Amino acid sequence: MLIRKGRAHAAGWRVRWGGRLALPAGLVVLGFALGCDAGVPAIEVARTSLDLGEIGQGPAETTVSVSNIGGDSLRILWVATSCGCTSAWVSDSLLAPGATTTLSVRYDPTVMTPPDTGRIHRGIYIQSNDPVRPEVEIDLYAVVRPPELP
Predict the structure, then answer these.
(1) In the chain, what's the furthest Cα-to-Cα distance?
(2) CB contact set of 134 (below 8 Å; sequence gap of 6+)
């Protein structure tokens, strides 16, 4: 480290009088572009594609983790689905920084008339106060076996 006239220089970082750290402008801009601002909520979903596999004519359920990786409280404003045969809800709608909640998903092919069969694709939408990703979409897939004959 080189010290000259009250300033220290080391690899582009500058320490100014009073011990304040001045970052190179490029790093600050990069931090904002990546959503790393400490005062902003940031949603993260563990998986954006859920596959229930092959299921019968009854309800099937799964869960996925939703986290706040930002520096301010994340508020989940609403959760919606693309079809009445699918329901989804979170256990907590307000997440402190670093907190995680569970998104529960339930798909019931018998809600449809006639009941769904074959490969299905439904959407789950989470809207939050994350300024970078205000809405996250999760794809739900399954292969539904036809009803058994009596």
Answers:
(1) 92
(2) 127, 128
Q: CA–CA separation, 16 vs 27, rounded Å?
A: 17
In DSSP terms, which residues pair with 63 in a beta bridge? 104
Task: Give pLDDT tens digits for 116-149.
Answer: 999 999 999 999 999 999 999 999 999 999 988 7
Token pair recorded at residue 102: 């569970």
The rounded distance, in Å, linking the Cα atoms of 123 and 109 is 14
Q: How far is CA 6 from CA 12, 19, 22, 61, 115, in A?
A: 16, 10, 14, 64, 77
Structural element, H or E, at residue 86: strand 86-90
Q: What is the CATH number of domain 43-144?
A: 2.60.40.10
Distance CA 81, CA 83 (A): 6
Calculated CA dihedral for residues 12, 16, 22, 24, nearest 10 degrees: -30
The residue extents of the domains of the chain are 2-33, 43-144
> How many whole angstroms from its chain centre is CA 46?
7
* The pLDDT value given to residue 93: 98
Question: If you average pLDDT over residues 76-91, what whole number do you get?
Answer: 97
